[in-house]
Q: What sequence folds into this?
């Protein structure tokens, strides 16, 4: 009787152990994934975002270690090398890539985004104008990032933030200062002097910004535009390649994977995951690649260390607000959404 019962006892636990182990494995994996904070990027996102400060550091070190770049004269007022003495073609402000890509960089960013928005099946029927929920939330993200670009570089209830910051730190238009010196009191009391509050207006008046702390508008634009495209394209590319979703989100039941929330909502299985519209993905990748190259050239030949890393920080503020903060705030995520979800 013991011989018949002992195999039962041996077989019983041996059959039960796999289920207990598997349950333990399941319960162990969930807490491990919950250790990831929705406020923080995944390892892949961290590597991509870390590419930007690494590029600025590489370019800045090149400007110090490369003899022609180190020996070339540099104008702090124009934030560049004189064209006749520039150490490289890319060190000239009038190089073709600066004129037709960087100067109108947000146009190329917007163009690449809308190509992706209209053609990738993850967002809606390719080639159509059907405003699906994913497309609508992607448009909201684009509007938010574009609004930040406008506020920093174009207009913010008057002068853009980049110019407000320059004047707040003591910057003036050099011509304006000379005109003030002609007045007996040393100051012009009319309103004309107060109207030259932007870099663009100062240039039109034939003057130069001088004396304040500036940030690199080129770095800000190139980082914001390319990282915006990366954050939009990356999740659908990972999904098409069959890679695991690592983003974490806060929900009413705690922190969990974005993939779990997507499956619970019945989202993500309606399109053919093996279909990747090459044009929709390749156009943003080309723009991000060229943006990275021009970021490297900007780091090597233009601006001071502080100006470059200040531009990086201002761009990261928008990226964090649009792509990471909603993961931790469900009400904000309901409006903004997440790329690929």
A:
């Amino acid at each position: 009787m013991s011989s018949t019962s002992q195999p039962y006892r041996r077989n019983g636990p041996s059959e039960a152990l796999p289920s207990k182990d598997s349950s333990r494995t399941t319960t162990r994996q969930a807490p491990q994934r919950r250790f990831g904070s929705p406020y923080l990027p995944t390892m892949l996102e961290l590597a991509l975002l870390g590419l930007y400060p690494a590029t600025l550091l590489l370019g800045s070190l090149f400007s110090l270690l490369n003899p022609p770049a180190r020996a070339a004269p540099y104008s702090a007022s124009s934030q560049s090398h004189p064209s006749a003495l520039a150490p490289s073609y890319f060190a000239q402000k009038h190089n073709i890539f600066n004129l037709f890509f960087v100067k109108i960089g947000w146009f190329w960013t917007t163009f690449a985004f809308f190509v992706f928005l209209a053609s990738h099946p993850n967002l809606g029927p390719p080639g159509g104008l059907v405003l699906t929920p994913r497309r609508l939330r992607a448009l909201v993200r684009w509007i938010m990032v574009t609004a930040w670009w406008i506020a920093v570089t174009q207009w913010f209830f008057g002068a853009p933030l980049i110019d407000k910051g320059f004047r707040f730190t003591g910057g003036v238009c050099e011509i304006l200062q000379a005109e003030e010196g002609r007045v007996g009191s040393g100051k012009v009391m009319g309103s004309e002097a107060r109207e030259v509050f932007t870099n663009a207006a100062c240039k039109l008046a034939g003057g130069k910004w001088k004396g304040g702390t500036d940030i690199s508008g080129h770095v800000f634009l190139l980082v914001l535009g390319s990282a915006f495209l990366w954050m939009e394209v990356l999740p659908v590319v990972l999904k098409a390649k069959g890679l695991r979703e690592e983003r974490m989100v806060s929900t009413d039941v705690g922190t969990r994977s974005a993939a779990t929330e997507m499956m619970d909502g019945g989202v993500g299985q309606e399109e053919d995951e093996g279909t990747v519209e090459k044009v929709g993905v390749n156009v943003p990748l080309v723009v991000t690649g060229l943006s990275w190259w021009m970021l490297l050239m900007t780091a090597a030949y233009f601006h001071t260390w502080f100006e470059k890393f200040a531009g990086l920080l201002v761009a990261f503020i928008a990226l964090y607000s649009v792509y990471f903060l909603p993961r931790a705030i469900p009400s904000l995520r309901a409006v903004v959404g997440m790329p690929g979800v």
